[in-house]
Design brief:
Number of strands: 4
Strand order of the largest sheet: 2-1-3-4
Bound molecules: FE2/S2 (inorganic) cluster
Structural class: alpha+beta
Shape: elongated
Order of helices and strands: HHHHEHHEEEH
Distance between the termini: 30 Å
Largest sheet: 4 strands, mixed
């Protein structure tokens, strides 16, 4: 399915809903990785609003991206069991190791609750992490 068709399907899914712009933007970013200029124009046209309005919302919320983020991603579990195993104490070192090169994402359970703290890079799961091993995971992402 082309990007245009995906966007059209997302817009159709939210048609008739009150305040559809934000949910549409979230879904477009989730499916396409960003809300680029072409997507903004298509959304504006479909909702009969100014493109500047769409762009304004994207600029206001830092979660939205206008270009794909191609950095490697390390997902770190921050759900209850991993919190109980002190994942929060590892975050500053992970952030320092990530810098601008790696994107850290918080996720809420990777199914390794008894072996946390846990992280995932692509299809690879990492469990029983301490600061040094999490930094290594980030550095190798
Ligand atoms: S709570 Fe972290 S893996 Fe389940």
């Amino acid at each position: 399915m082309s990007s245009e068709n995906k966007i059209a399907a997302i817009i159709a899914r939210h048609s008739g809903r009150e305040g559809p712009l934000l949910p549409i933007l979230h879904d477009v970013q989730a499916e396409l990785g960003c809300v680029d200029a072409a997507a903004q124009a298509e959304i504006a046209r479909a909702l009969n609003i100014a493109r500047a309005e769409v762009h304004g919302v994207i600029s206001f919320y830092h979660d939205f991206r206008e270009e794909p983020d191609t950095r490697p991603v390390v997902e770190i579990c921050r759900a209850e069991a991993c919190q109980a195993r002190r994942v929060e104490a590892l975050i500053p070192a992970a952030e320092a190791a990530a810098g601008d090169r790696v994107r850290l994402e918080s996720v809420y359970c990777l199914g390794l609750c008894g072996m946390g703290p846990s992280a995932r890079v692509g299809n690879h799961l990492h469990a029983g992490l301490d600061e040094a091993s999490l930094v290594k995971v980030v550095n190798q992402a």
